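Researcher: Structure prediction, please.
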Amino acid sequence: MEIGFLGLGIMGKAMSMNLLKHGFKVTVWNRTLSKCDELVEHGASIAETPSAVINKCRFTIGMLSDPVAALSVVFDKDGVLDAIGNGKGYIDMSTVDAETSSKISEAITSKGGVFLESPVSGSKKPAEDGQLVILAAGDKALYEEIIPAFDVLGKKSFYLGHVGNGAKMKLVVNMIMGSMMNAFSEGLELAGKSELDPSTLLDVLSLGAIANPMFAGKGPAMLQSNYSPAFPLKHQQKDMRLALALGDENSVSMPIAAASNEAFKKARGMGLGDLDFSAVFEAVKSRKH
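Model: Predicted structure follows.
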């Protein structure tokens, strides 16, 4: 199976590499073409434009940073829409809002193509290890055809029905994750200021009902002020903003998520946007005591 891949950021690069390692032929495109070099060394082909990728491949995956980038790759000159047609499938694995997904879906199906939104839960390490959770919605036949690739990229795929449901599920998941990271950061700071050892707090948490991989994985690095980006803070804040908009649409009051969003915004204002989202800890530590 040959797969096209648009977008080689932290996630896209790891996912493309996984497909290559498992014997898929992969043709890649990235706005900065030099980001393709390492993948070419592992057997990938390069295309100059998104439309050239679509022309070459029956299935193309997009993994873009935000709704603006996801729309640009589809609608701009030499984009997906210029080449999509009968027999071609486009799978957008970016994290966007349901409205963006629907707009892309309508444009692609109007040209005879088929569309699947498939945002993922997981960051750099799960992407490298093929342990993502894939939240797919849209064309069921395309979902079934692309499953061999999904089985390489993820540990579990969910088919959630019509376009928009994948986007909404991903935003709910990331809203919970962002809110938890803020509570965790406040807990680490409270322990330290209370003359407790925050690393002992990590041990205590790991043995209780709220033990989870995020606390275990991020905690020790946070205590060392190490925020090497697995999931950049600017993207987490974007997801909080989109989740709050979804709350507005559905009249759901979300004061905890709203406060967490403010903390991520503060961290971005401190210049931490390109660091890991756990760098919100620095915004918590900078509050006046």
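Model: DSSP finds 13 helices and nine strands in the chain.
Researcher: Thanks, that helps.
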